[in-house]
TrEMBL record:
It comes from Amycolatopsis suaedae. Coiled coil: none annotated. This is DUF664 domain-containing protein. InterPro entries: DinB/YfiT-like, Methyltransf_25, Methyltransf_Superfamily, MST-like, SAM-dependent_MTases_sf. One of its GO terms (molecular function) is methyltransferase activity. The lineage of its organism: Bacteria, Bacillati, Actinomycetota, Actinomycetes, Pseudonocardiales. Residues 41-129 form the Methyltransferase domain.
Length: 353
């Protein structure tokens, strides 16, 4: 199955249905009422009842569907009240980070790896953001799909394989409701409802260190190093390397720079152009840059383990004392960790130490 098949099929379905005044789904209104508005994404928006209802309540909505008929019709109806994009979710996923993503009855007789789409959705949530998946738990008498058996909410959650440290299952149940068919007829149906929330990262408290000067200095430096690496780890492309301020400072470049600082200070490596270190090599992934920083830190700590005297030079020759080197690295890492906090929040709303 390719995009043309999906467009042809769903264009046919939507062209045959004219919904003058699309209404929101019951589970959406139930879950969203009372939430503060933010950025919302509606996957497989169809006639757009959910997207329009959200926009009326102050949400900034992006509504997505594979069908050009559905997308054009909704764009005409909504004007500038919301953004409508055509995506075949098997091939592309809308850009951005969202506080709410909903997928109501994202069912299709054509091939669709729903798990992959819903995993992308979970990853596109901001911290605190919610993913609402509502599926048919039973077929209404007028449904085109009488034979299908849809997995329950716990099964869907299992397929998504979400790390419980990062996502919380807020709701997984199968309530019943009275549905109204295209001819105005009614029937009792079951919905499968799964609501997942992306957790906020917990703040790591200041480190418990030993009492000696070396233990305090090294404990706080390691705390900052861990924090700045975690801030960059998993940050999305391409924003992780895009300049966020006029100076060109970017999140990945900051960690790349700190790698050179560690190596220069503790391993004695020469750096010809410090400014260039603020830009990571295009060939390096985020994981590469993070791994290289962690490796530089490990090697730096090996050097420090061999330096029992804080007053002694950190390396042979004309080098600053260990005390000065540690204090400078705390200052340098702390300064850039603060920059990284702001840049990461600008990218996807993630906060926390
Ligand atoms: C059963 S309808 C549900 C529509 C709407 N969410 C609702 O609750 O009324 C499924 C929707 O998913 C859309 N869809 C199907 N396959 C898709 C794909 N591969 N990418 C994007 N949208 C798709 C269809 O065009 C259709 O609008």
């Amino acid at each position: 199955m390719n995009t043309t098949d999906a467009v042809t099929f769903w264009d046919g379905v939507h062209a045959a249905r004219t919904v003058q005044d699309p209404r929101p789904n019951a589970r959406l209104t139930e879950v969203v009422t009372g939430l503060p508005p933010g950025d919302a994404l509606d996957l497989g928006c169809g006639a757009g009842g959910d997207a329009l209802w959200l926009a009326e309540r102050g949400w900034r909505v992006t509504a997505v569907d594979v069908s050009a008929v559905a997308v054009d019709r909704l764009a005409g109806l909504a004007g500038d009240r919301l953004t409508v994009e055509r995506h075949d979710l098997r091939e592309s996923f809308p850009r951005g980070r969202f506080d709410l993503i909903c997928a109501h009855y994202l069912h299709t007789p054509l091939e669709l790896d729903r798990t992959a789409v819903l995993r992308s959705a979970a990853r596109a949530l901001r911290p605190g953001g919610r993913l609402l998946i509502v599926d048919h738990g039973s077929a209404a008498p007028w449904s085109w799909n009488q034979e299908a058996r849809f997995p329950g909410p716990r099964e869907i959650a299992g397929d998504l394989g979400l790390d419980p440290a990062k996502w919380t299952i807020v709701r997984a149940d199968s309530p019943r409701r009275t549905a109204t068919g295209p001819g105005g007829q009614t029937a009792e149906v079951t919905d499968h409802v799964l609501l997942v929330r992306r957790n906020h990262r917990r703040d790591a408290p200041p480190p418990r260190t030993g009492n000696s000067e070396a233990e305090v200095l090294r404990g706080f430096l390691d705390y900052l190093r861990t924090s700045v690496a975690a801030k960059v780890d998993g940050a999305p492309e391409p924003s992780v390397r895009s300049a966020a301020v006029p100076s060109g400072t970017n999140l990945l470049g900051l960690l790349n720079h700190l790698t050179f600082v560690e190596r220069a200070m503790f391993l004695g490596e020469e750096v010809g152009d410090w400014q260039a270190t603020f830009r990571a090599d295009a060939a390096d992934s985020v994981a590469d840059v993070v791994a290289r920083y962690r490796e530089a830190v490990e090697r730096a700590n090996d050097v420090l383990d061999g330096c029992p005297d804080l007053g002694a030079p950190v390396r042979p020759g004309r080098a600053p004392s260990v005390r000065w080197a540690l204090t400078h690295l705390i200052e340098e890492t702390g300064r850039h960790a603060g920059h990284a906090d702001i840049l990461r929040e600008l990218i996807d709303g993630s906060t926390g130490r």
